[in-house]
C-alpha cells in the first residue's frame, strides 16, 4: 500500500515499474504514447520507471486507466520472504543483521568495460541502502547513459562464500554481480553477468569485470557515462577495471 503522503515504497515502486514495462511490451506502444494517454509528462514517466521519482497513487491510477490493466495487483510478489525479526535479512539473502553490514551502505562509482566503444570504460552510480520494508540491503543504479536499463535489486551476503551479490530479478530475468569483500580503500571488485543489447531485440549473455569505488574516497566530481581513452579520468578508471583480473578478484579462463 502507499505511504500516507501518497508515495509508494521503494520495493513496490520497482514492482510497479516492471508491471508498466510489461504492459507497454504487450500493447506495443511507446512510452511517449502512454504518457500522452495517461495525461502525464514523458519526464515524469521516465523518472518513475527509472526509480528517480516515487510513484504516487494518482500517477498509478492514470497509468492503469491508460493501459487498461490493474498495475497494483502484483505488488510485493518479487520481494524476498519477509524475515521474522526486524533488522535481519531473510535466509535467502544470507540472514545478515543490519548492524553487521552497515559498512557497505553508501554511494559507489561503478565501472566496467564499455560494450559499445573499444577501450572505453562505462561509468555510473550504484547506491546501497537498507530497505526497511524488506528488511535487507537494496541497491539502485543511477547516472546511466542507457537509463532504460537502470537496475534495482537486493543485496545477498552469505557467510559461506564471503562474497557480496547484487541480484536483480524482473519477472524471472536475472542479472547478477558477484563482488569480493571491500579492500582497505573500501572498493569492491568482481564480475557482472548480464545481457548485452544487440541488433533489434537480440540479447546476448555477457560477463565483464566490475569495480565499485566509494564516492567518498574520490577527489573531485566523478565522470559518468562512456569514458573514452582520451578522457582525463580514463586511466584511473581503467586501472580499477584491470585490477579485477590482475589481483585475482575474478578469473576469466582463456578459451
TrEMBL record:
UniProt-listed Gene3D superfamilies: lambda repressor-like DNA-binding domains (1.10.260.40)
CDD domains reported for this sequence: HTH_XRE
Domain of life: Bacteria
Pfam families: HTH_3 (PF01381)
Domain HTH cro/C1-type per the UniProt entry, residue ranges: 20-75
Lineage: Bacteria, Pseudomonadati, Pseudomonadota, Alphaproteobacteria, Hyphomicrobiales
Species for this entry: Chelatococcus reniformis
SMART domains listed in its UniProt record: HTH_XRE
Protein name: Transcriptional regulator
A single MF term (Gene Ontology): DNA binding
